[in-house]
Specification:
Number of helices: 15
Largest sheet: none
CATH superfamily: Farnesyl Diphosphate Synthase
CATH class: Mainly Alpha
CATH topology: Farnesyl Diphosphate Synthase
Radius of gyration: 20 Å
Shape: globular
Strand content: under 5%
Number of strands: 0
Number of domains: 1
Structural class: mainly alpha
Helix content: over 70%
Length: 301
Amino acid sequence: MLSLLEADMAEVDRVIRARLHSDVALVQQVSEYIIQSGGKRLRPALVVLSANALGYRGEQHHEMAAVVEFIHTATLLHDDVVDASEQRIGGDFLYSRAFQMMVSVKNMRVMEVLSDATNIIAEGEVLQLMNCNDPDIDEAAYLRVIRYKTAQLFEAAGRLGAIVNGSPREIEDALGNYGMHLGTAFQIIDDVLDYSGETDIIGKNVGDDLAEGKPTLPLLFAMKHGTPEETKIIRNAILQGDASNFQRILNIVQRTGALTHAYQQAEAESALAQAALSSIPGSKFKEALLQLSAFAVTREF
């Protein structure tokens, strides 16, 4: 899959560099951070794969892939560094540049999809803040945050591939549904890795979600199926945002089968993503989309 995308993603990086050039030092620093940090680039890759799977021949998918990466990075800057004004300024610049680029395409559907997605993502950020330190939310509320905050941009990425190709709405919806289920599976596994991954592989400290008081799926399941004492331990950790009892909680999560349950949920979302592609003609790019949905569940980082 990576070799299939190599040339396209190099072009996306070129677009990112060109569109983020600025004489303002702080903005240029943010630009270089995006380019050099690389990351998984799953969302822009999804734009490129979706367009190519439909036989698109043009350059707009590179522009749209860069826009999606800008919006993603802006949400990270806003979400992770709430009180650091310099970082937020960088995020604001990314948002404004993304909207300049989407307007330049002169396609109303592009603007509808991306403006709606940006608004829903912002609602998801608020929902996640409201859910922090609340051990009483249910799985439906947890999944709602994922759909808004993470899966929405994956959905938009899939739709953009169809839109730049001029495909009918049913094809756009199919790739949008693929992206939504892919993004949901991806985030569930992100939450699982906080209790099963290794710090040097996943790129963050295990237990970070617990320290932030996030009631993720493994914890919700463990509270539901643990003993009263175990449930109380997890509840208190979420309420206090306290990871000092992490090893004990990890043992509870493992004993109750919470990680297995979460993996099963992610696998179900991955299967729905694959099913959404049934109307997309066969090609090496469709095969890569199927591989991507499998990777979302099996990845270790």
